[in-house]
Amino acid sequence: MNRPRLLVALLAASTALSAAAATTEYPMRPVRLVVPFAAGGPMDIMSRALGERLTTRLGQQIVVDNRGGAGGSIGAEIVARSAPDGHTLLTGHIGTHAINVSLYPKLGYDPVKDFAPISLIATLPLGLFVNVSVPANSVSELIALAKAKPGQINFASAGSGGPTHMAGEMLKAMAAVDIVHVPYKGNAAGLTDLVAGRVQMMFSNLLTAMPHVKAGKLRAVAISTAQRSPQAPDLPTIAESGVPGYDFTPWYGIFAPGGTPRPVVMKLNREIDTILNAPDLKERFRTQGIDLVTSTPEAFSALIRKDIPKWREIVKKSGARVG
């Protein structure tokens, strides 16, 4: 074998050995899991449950690090700029990886090039809730109220660019109403002001909002997905309540920085798949209105690439702006 070919062969063998070693030895120290939103929300709850079980299976501590702000962009950018060795991960969602790129004019990361998708972890419906003082018991009544009072109905969100924001923007565009977005630092803060009557409506996960409904402080109006939720079967969909075609199903997933070795990505994918398909964990989250799901890295990547142009059109039509 001549010298150039020998060098190529040695390089290929070295790369293969390095990849194998990365899989065998990973993780070599605690793993940081960045959650780009405040503690207490559904993303945080899912991340901590996953982190606890990953700690056991990987033999290294998974440290959840809440880095909220800018619709999840601050935390996502931290991970995008981290070393691609699998020791810094991100729990992202439809906002950080499909919506923000159209919403923020100076996003500090590329949602496709700067990340290695590992697996989807969950989808969950959002409920549409109003303060009990709002004279609307259905979506059609809420739309009529908004049209009668343009610019006077405020809707809270857990942060600009996230699912609770864009669900409202999607309703605004499809129902042709003038409602005003009020972003908060986390779902809990938005719900607090909704209960207090400082804002009139909000899209929220069922887990944190339904207790306020049962306490008589909020009214549940509809669900965001195309099908009714098993956790709230009496709650109609927005599509069947006056806005045909409305369907918003937020997804959540785990990412590594772009360039993370394929063996590390696949090891994490296999572990996450095993954890999230455990019957006890699935049932635990199902009762909270969260459907645990998994995927291949390739399927997850394809979903992101499909959703980016879809949300570009929705953002454009709604006129949503940040900053």
Descriptive account of the structure:
The chain folds into two domains: 29-123 and 250-318, D-Maltodextrin-Binding Protein, domain 2, CATH 3.40.190; 126-241, D-Maltodextrin-Binding Protein, domain 2 (3-Layer(aba) Sandwich), CATH 3.40.190.10. The protein contains eleven helices and eleven strands. Helix 1 (3-25) runs parallel beside helix 9, helix 4 crosses helix 11 (297-318) and helix 6 (163-175) crosses helix 11. The chain has helices at 3-25, 42-58, 73-80, 94-103, 139-148, 163-175, 187-196, 206-214, 262-276, 279-286, 297-318, and strands at residues 31-35, 62-66, 88-93, 115-123, 126-131, 153-157, 179-183, 201-205, 218-223, 251-257, 291-292. The chain has 323 residues and is of the alpha/beta class. Helix 2 (42-58) links the parallel strand 1 and strand 2 (62-66). Strands 2-1-3-10-4-11 form a six-stranded mixed beta sheet, with helices on both faces. A five-stranded mixed beta sheet has the order 7-6-8-5-9, sandwiched between helices. Helices cover 45% and strands 19% of the residues. The longest helix has 23 residues, at 3-25.
